[in-house]
Specification:
Two copies of one chain form a homodimer. With about 130 residues, chain A is mostly helical. The first copy, chain A, is about 65% helix and about 5% strand. The first copy, chain A, has a two-stranded antiparallel ribbon with strand order 1-2. The radius of gyration of chain A is 23 Å and the shape is elongated. At the A-B interface, α3, α5 and α6 of A face α3, α5 and α6 of B. Chain A binds a DNA duplex (30 and 30 nucleotides) through α2.
DNA sequence: CTTGATCCTGTAGTGACTACAGGATACATA
DNA sequence: TATGTATCCTGTAGTCACTACAGGATCAAG
């Protein structure tokens, strides 16, 4: 049943081979069973697990958060409310990042608006970068 | 004239002492002149320079970008248009980050909306995290 | 039987810091 | 003048989540 190579797992999940090995090293994925010659072998359960990790990463969860999440899932010891609340906390962190970046964006746009955009060696962007 | 300690420079600019030493090591700041006993000494020019770096960092520029920007400024070999265009490119990168984060945020919010938030060990968030 | 694809381990690099350890020096107070 | 504590020094290692080799073994197809 364990018949997928690391390459196939990578292809099925969109996670790079090097990253899969890294996840194993860091105990985010369990040690893979090996073929006689020492190659890693996977099955559909591994695909499912790696999809979970991949999706969490794409939603901005850290590997530490993913480890906690997965251990909740593995033990079955969680409630919908608990997961919901964890998700809300994470969503708030994302929202804060967005608002930080929007502030940067706004400052940059405002700075650029003052430019003559001319062929001259004076620039209000440079000037305002020197302000503390 | 060079009479500021690294601690004073840190206080004036809001940049940590360790970070100032790091910037010197990485040639983002020039090697500081030293007192007889080997302590770093700074002046208002250094304050100005570090403010520039600090402000650039707060606007999301990488240290590499800052090095290029500063060498433009140091040589005086730049035009307003050039700086304006560099800034626009950087602003676009910020905007892309924002839009990526907003997509994450949206998915998270939608996932959370489906929760019963009950005291039960079934959760639609977990279910959808397993989808590829 | 050979060729090229795939796999293995182990190590080092990335970016921008941050956090010590272990010691030297400066300055304010008793 | 002695002392205590604040500040400084160098050098190294850790953080996060990969990514990129080097150098070698093994597999599958023609």
């Amino acid at each position: 049943m364990k018949s997928l190579s690391i390459g196939s797992l990578a292809e099925k999940t969109g996670v790079h081979i090097e990253t899969i090995r890294y996840y194993e090293r860091e105990d985010i994925l369990p040690k893979a069973t090996r073929s006689e010659s020492g190659r890693r072998l996977y099955d559909e359960g591994d695909v499912r697990r790696l999809n979970f990790i991949h999706k969490c990463r794409s939603l901005g969860f850290s590997l530490k958060e993913i480890i906690s999440l997965m251990s909740l899932v593995d033990t079955g010891d969680y409630t919908c409310r608990q997961v919901h609340d964890l998700t809300l906390v994470h969503t708030k962190e994302i929202s804060e990042k967005i608002s930080d970046l929007r502030k940067m964006e706004q400052v940059l746009i405002e700075m650029a608006e003052h430019c003559s955009q001319g062929n001259v060696p004076e620039c209000p962007i440079i000037d305002s970068l020197f302000d503390s």
